[in-house]
Design a protein that fits this description.
385 residues; alpha/beta; 8-stranded parallel beta sheet
């Protein structure tokens, strides 16, 4: 038999590796992930905007419905639009806002901060500044400085979106900036998400996956990677009429993002479609069909969050999401029940599969697709898996 010294020797040999794995791959966060992020240009952001989006979405359903989903799904969607039409709101100072006179963006930053300070009406909120590229760097810094200076305490769930990141050094610089902003305005630690919308962000000149280096450079502050559909497609030279969330170039970039983020605690978000549900009933229903299909496609590929740009996209965001969870919930409950009881289902589920089943059910509960009656497990049990 081996002596205790051999066990101790292996522990000592792998101590640094154990610490490295724990630091870089802490696992999936237990907090709620929103099913979408709604981008609103800063000059259109106002008090009561989520409620206004919900009313507009319901009006669209009344005018152009019904949705191509079951009555139960539609009923849940209507309740969601009345209760919580936006889960995560991003005040946009970048592409959705554009280049403005300096004093105009200054005023918009102060005004947005005052509205958020008075009470954020969404579970999660944040802002997208301009990029740290040379042309927009100073404007990005000033907008963040003015906004955070007028904000007071940072709301729970607050996140900054940093667009057009191309190098890990830009992320390191943003970490430095966050520290300076925290000190200047006496803020709690700031968290941010990175938009992956340039080709160097996916694959660097050395052949390394830049996005993995950027997660490391964030020093624990990065909470998400968001795919930028149209900037990335343009950078790849794809003609405008073929730019899409489901283009093979998009799938490649998102696959790299997925592997880079796996196990790190950094979450993923797909991008947007620019085909919005406006116009005639025929045009609205066609846009809804496209959006619902793309949302479902993202969910099936492990991207549980996406972007919405128009209030009339909210019905299909929630309908497609709810259908995804409700379609699979009975089988997931059965498989997890039999696994916990030690019975075979004809599929030899492993502990990793049990974790996936538990996580699936938790996501369904968090977004409102499932109720306690649909999931006969204590939340504590699901989280423990």
């Amino acid at each position: 038999m081996l002596g205790d010294s051999v066990y101790a020797e292996l522990d000592a040999t792998l101590a640094e590796t154990d610490a490295w794995l724990a630091r870089h791959f802490p696992g999936e966060p237990r907090s709620r992930q929103p099913v979408h992020t709604v981008y609103v240009p800063a000059d259109r952001f106002r008090e009561g905007l989520p409620e206004a989006y919900g009313r507009t979405a319901l009006d669209a359903l009344d005018a152009h419905g019904p949705l191509a989903f079951s009555g139960d799904i539609v009923e849940r969607v209507r309740a969601k639009l009345a209760r919580e039409p936006i889960e995560d709101l991003r005040i946009d100072f970048e592409d959705g806002y554009g280049r403005r006179p300096e004093d105009e963006e200054d005023g918009a930053a102060r005004a947005a901060a005052a509205i958020v300070r008075a009470g954020a009406s969404t579970a999660m909120i944040g802002l997208r500044c301009k990029s740290l590229e040379a042309m927009t760097r100073h404007r990005a810094i000033r907008t963040l400085d003015l906004f955070l200076g007028g904000l007071g305490d940072v709301p729970a769930g607050f996140v900054i979106t940093l667009p057009k990141v191309s190098a890990a050094t830009q992320v390191s610089a943003f970490v430095l900036l966050c520290g300076r902003l925290e000190a200047a305005h006496e803020l709690a630690p700031l968290r941010f998400e990175l938009q992956i919308e340039t080709t160097p962000a996916v694959l660097g000149p050395s052949g390394r996956a830049t996005v993995a280096e950027m997660i490391e450079a964030a020093e624990g502050r990065c909470v998400g990677l968001h795919y930028g559909t149209y900037d990335y497609s343009t950078a790849c030279g794809i003609a405008a009429q073929y730019q899409s969330m489901e283009h093979p170039a998009a799938d490649y970039a998102k696959a790299v993002m997925q592997v880079a983020a796996a196990g790190t605690g950094v979450r993923l978000s797909d991008g947007s479609t620019n085909i919005v549900p406006v116009g005639t009933t025929e045009e609205v229903r066609a846009a809804w069909a496209l959006h619902a299909r793309l949302v479902r496609r993202s969910l099936e590929r492990g991207f549980y969050q996406g972007w919405d740009l128009h209030p009339a996209q909210l019905p299909t965001r929630f309908a497609a999401t709810y259908a995804f969870y409700r379609d699979a919930a009975p089988a997931a409950v059965n498989r997890l029940s039999r696994y916990l009881e030690g019975h075979s289902t004809g599929v030899l589920d492993e502990p990793a599969t049990a974790r996936s089943l538990a996580r699936f059910l938790l996501r369904g509960l968090d977004c409102g697709a499932l109720d306690d009656a649909d999931v006969p497990f204590d939340r504590e049990l699901l989280e423990s898996r």
